[in-house]
């Protein structure tokens, strides 16, 4: 016999069961509808194709008719890609070759994957270890380094330790100075990356080499490269100087045309191994890369700065040298910087994106007369306390003394510029904008900058200031950029 309580429990359970069944059916149906574009086999496949990353083997992809945006090649529109990659340019003839290291890859690559890499049809990521980040292969660029160069070479300790790590790299790296070790190992990569990219993905018109903290403004890159002939030998970058030798700065990114790759890599099998031994003695991979191209192919880097740029919106020195120039790359962009800029780019319809636009969006709203504990590195002209009047006696650094304005050329305000932040600001106002847009004061030392930079938090004792009126007047006087200044190659 069923008791009243059991009956109650039974009927309650039955009701709950029926309700659950009905709800499950409804939810199940809607889930199925919602999930279809993402879990449908073909859609998955097309997403793989879109995101490339090493799955194409050696097929030439440089065919301009191979266009995969924003629809996937199979014709399955991907809702997410469609909205995020809206207006993304056709980059199908450009291969991005990105460089990272196992000690930083999980910190830097995921944001790239969520933003810039998401809309690229194809790319390669090289590192100092084979890895896989959420399904995206990362290739060990050092696997082809000569064994005799690796053996007994302390530069490769981190390379071996990384492979021996049985947990995550971050935990294994807690003890040592992995950033420094990874930086030293980094110099062996560049030429191997070029050689491997050429072998794995031949036939592209352009190969753009960049770091994981490089931001590539693809619409500008695509538009700019359209004006150049890929069959000619082009090596484009931002020139830097080490020991009186010019080279293309790697963090800013550099571009080699098909003609250049054919000449440098194609005609010189084993070129990377020829430089393995040399790398031991060199400081950096980008420096050595330019040296190898110069010595092998007799080709110097063409200056593409400031369009190819090693700064980011907060450190670009805005002003006469950085204004109507389109921006193609930026460097030292951390995950937050990349995400912020990506959002800005999605909302920005202005083409081409100019450095002026970055000023207007990222700096102008933050312009104010003064910030304390802030460093904009105004360091072009110095006014130093030479009489030990404002603080205990000290010797000034030689670099500062070299940039100190000669005492016999100082006006009344400049003579006292070193006394206080107010004096430094007044001295800035007393000279022309060609000498001062902004200033920085620390005890006994006043520095001027001839460009305007937002800068970054600095030591507590550092005060930075901007001549706001002067900057705004200059900006207004420039007006819109009627002539866009692309690099002259
Ligand atoms: C490139 O596209 C053209 C036109 O669609 C086609 O005929 C050709 O076979 C393609 N080449 C490659 C290498 O895919
Ligand atoms: C490259 O630049 C250096 C230094 O300016 C110069 O001496 C050299 O002749 C140049 N080489 C070529 C191939 O243009
Ligand atoms: C300031 O102090 C330094 C360090 O003691 C000294 O060498 C220098 O002569 C002093 N300068 C003057 C003008 O007294
Ligand atoms: C500070 O400003 C100067 C130009 O006045 C520029 O060269 C430098 O890169 C700036 N530094 C930072 C961190 O903003």
Automatic annotation (TrEMBL):
InterPro entries named among the record's database cross-references: C1GALT1/C1GALT1_chp1
Keywords carried by this UniProt record: Membrane, Signal-anchor, Transmembrane, Transmembrane helix
Superkingdom of source: Eukaryota
UniProt membrane topology term: Single-pass type II membrane protein
GO cellular component: membrane
Primary residence: membrane
Record's subcellular location: Membrane
Region: Disordered, residue numbers: 49-76
Gene3D superfamilies: 3.90.550.50
Extent of Polar residues compositional bias: 62-71
Listed name of the protein: Glycosyltransferase family 31 protein
Organism, as annotated: Bombardia bombarda
């Amino acid at each position: 016999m069923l008791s009243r309580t059991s009956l109650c429990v039974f009927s309650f359970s039955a009701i709950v069961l029926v309700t659950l069944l009905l709800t499950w059916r409804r939810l199940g149906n809607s889930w199925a509808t919602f999930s279809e574009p993402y879990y449908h086999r073909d859609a998955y496949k097309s997403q793989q194709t879109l995101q490339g990353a090493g799955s194409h083997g050696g097929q030439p992809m440089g065919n301009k008719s191979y266009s995969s945006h924003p629809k996937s090649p199979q014709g399955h529109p991907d809702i997410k890609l469609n909205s995020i990659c809206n207006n993304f340019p056709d980059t199908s003839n450009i291969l991005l070759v990105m460089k990272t290291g196992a000690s930083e890859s999980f910190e830097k690559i995921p944001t790239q994957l969520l933003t810039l890499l998401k809309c690229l049809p194809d790319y390669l990521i090289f590192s100092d270890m084979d890895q896989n980040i959420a399904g995206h292969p990362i290739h060990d660029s050092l696997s082809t380094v000569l064994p005799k160069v690796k053996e007994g070479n302390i530069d490769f300790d981190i390379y071996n330790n990384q492979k021996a790590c049985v947990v995550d790299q971050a935990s294994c790296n807690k003890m040592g100075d992995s950033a420094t070790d990874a930086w030293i190992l980094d110099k062996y990569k560049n030429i191997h990356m070029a050689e491997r990219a050429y072998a794995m993905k031949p036939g592209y018109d352009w190969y753009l080499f960049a770091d994981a903290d490089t931001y590539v403004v693809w619409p500008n890159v695509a538009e700019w490269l359209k004006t150049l002939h890929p069959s000619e030998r082009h090596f484009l970058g931002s020139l830097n100087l080490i020991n009186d030798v010019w080279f293309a700065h790697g963090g800013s990114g550099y571009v080699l045309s098909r003609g250049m790759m054919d000449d440098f890599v194609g005609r010189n099998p084993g070129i990377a191994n020829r430089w393995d031994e040399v790398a031991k003695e060199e400081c950096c991979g980008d420096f050595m890369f330019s040296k190898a191209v110069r010595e092998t192919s007799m080709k110097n880097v063409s200056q593409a700065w400031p369009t190819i740029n090693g700064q980011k919106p907060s450190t670009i020195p805005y002003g006469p040298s950085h204004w109507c120039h389109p921006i193609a790359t930026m460097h030292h962009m951390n995950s937050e910087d990349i995400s912020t800029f990506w959002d800005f780019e999605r909302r920005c319809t202005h083409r081409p994106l100019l450095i002026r636009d970055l000023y207007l969006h990222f700096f102008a709203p933050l312009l104010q007369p003064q910030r304390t504990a802030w460093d904009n590195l105004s360091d072009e002209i110095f006014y130093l306390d030479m009489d030990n009047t404002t603080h205990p006696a000290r010797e000034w650094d030689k670099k500062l003394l070299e940039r100190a304005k000669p005492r016999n050329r100082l006006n009344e305000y400049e003579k006292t510029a070193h006394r206080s932040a107010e004096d430094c600001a007044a001295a800035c106002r007393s000279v022309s904008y060609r000498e001062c847009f902004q200033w920085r004061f620390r005890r006994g030392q006043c520095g001027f900058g001839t460009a305007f930079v937002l800068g970054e938090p600095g030591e507590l004792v550092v005060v930075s200031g901007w001549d706001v009126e002067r900057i705004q007047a200059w900006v207004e006087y420039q007006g819109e950029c009627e002539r866009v200044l692309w690099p002259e190659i």
